[in-house]
Structure to design on (116 residues):
């Protein structure tokens, strides 16, 4: 049942974004940034974490989950280091994922010839 819930929630988020994309003049970049900011804001006010606990991967996989992760790291580091945590917290939680994405993307770019 958890898989079905995650599929429906993640698919619902994607469907809403597709409807917004199809019916407005917003670009995919606008929607991407909007999702990240929405996840960050909802995480900052404490709404996104209960949503993640209920929806599982359906809420973690979309870009809104990344925005929530950034804010969660910042909040943890602010508790530990004070105001300095605002600057280091995002890297503490998301640093490994970002580094992996850069390394793998660079490897793929070196191995394959892009088509225009």
């Amino acid at each position: 049942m958890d898989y079905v819930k995650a599929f429906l929630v993640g698919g619902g988020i994607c469907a809403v974004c597709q409807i917004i994309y199809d019916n407005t003049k917003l670009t995919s970049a606008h929607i991407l940034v909007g999702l990240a900011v929405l996840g960050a804001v909802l995480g900052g006010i404490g709404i996104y974490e209960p949503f993640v606990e209920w929806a599982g991967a359906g809420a973690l996989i979309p870009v809104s989950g990344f925005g929530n992760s950034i804010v969660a790291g910042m909040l943890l580091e602010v508790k530990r280091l004070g105001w300095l945590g605002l600057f280091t917290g995002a890297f503490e939680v998301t640093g490994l994922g970002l580094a992996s994405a850069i390394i793998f993307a660079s490897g793929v770019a070196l191995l394959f010839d892009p088509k225009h």
